[in-house]
Design a protein that fits this description.
By secondary structure, the chain is an alpha/beta fold. It is built from eight helices and 13 strands.
């Protein structure tokens, strides 16, 4: 799926919430910006619509009767790489980060300004445009070559990660984060730098980075106590290719490891 905002093929947004009045309000703001908007009022319908219409962004309420937002997001990730903006009426950080741990890319606390929500959606689509045009983030090269690290291959140009020849299913944010780290092996990124590179200029809590790093490690089978790919540099941030590893990242050679 190509997540690019244009007037010819406007981005597709799916809004999911059991509050009909909120959905109507959000829809009116998004349509005013030229987006194509679908709506769902429960989790099961949301999954059916998402599979059929392949939205670029899903605005998803965390607390819904029946199938809640966390489970919807978890199932959505089996067939979609859409950006997910999770809405929650709970103010606790734990509640917000639960959604991110199953593949959400951003969160907002309700009640929130519809204008702010539209701004978040635009930011997600801008990040997608940047990734399609030049790779991922501000620090990546214009034509990045695949990074080969043991049996792990990160191909930014194809937006694909394989491990042992099998594709690793990552969310857009997880991919962007891995791409930023792996294209600068050995370089320590602070949380602030990763937020700026992957999430853009919006203000986020640094713990969002930690949650996505945890998700990456789980999918890559990377033990944080004995990391093969991503090392935590205590008090500073993270780097790709831990010191003392027997294998160094290579570039542009996917035929031999």
């Amino acid at each position: 799926m190509t997540l690019v905002e244009s007037t010819i093929n406007p981005a597709r947004i799916l809004v999911v919430d059991d509050e009909h009045s909120l959905v109507d309000l959000v829809r009116s703001y998004l349509e005013a910006e030229g987006y194509t908007v679908s709506e769902a009022f429960d989790g099961y319908s949301a999954l059916q619509i998402a599979e059929r219409e392949k939205p670029d962004v899903v605005v998803l309420d965390l607390m819904m009767p029946g199938l809640d937002g966390v489970e919807v997001c978890r199932r959505l990730r089996h067939f979609s790489n859409a950006y997910v903006l999770m809405l929650t009426s709970k103010s606790g950080e734990v509640d917000k980060l639960i959604g991110l741990s199953v593949g959400a890319d951003d969160y907002m606390t309700k009640p929130s300004s519809p204008r702010e929500l539209v701004a978040r959606v635009k930011a997600m689509l801008r990040r997608a445009e940047m990734g399609a045009a030049t790779g991922v983030g501000r620090l990546l090269p214009d034509v990045p070559e695949p990074v080969v690290f043991g049996d792990l291959v990160i191909d930014v140009a194809r937006h694909e990660v394989t491990q042992g020849g099998s594709v690793v299913q990552l969310t857009p944010r997880e991919f962007d984060l891995l791409a930023a780290l792996s294209t600068h092996p050995g370089l320590v990124f602070t949380r602030a730098q990763l937020l700026h590179t992957v999430w853009g200029d919006e203000v986020y809590d640094g713990r969002v980075v930690d949650v996505h790093i945890t998700g990456l490690r789980k999918k890559l089978g990377d033990d944080p106590s004995n990391p093969r790919y991503i090392e935590t540099v205590r008090g500073v941030g993270f780097r790709f290719g831990p010191r003392g590893s027997n294998s160094a990242p290579q570039k542009g050679n996917t035929g031999e490891v």
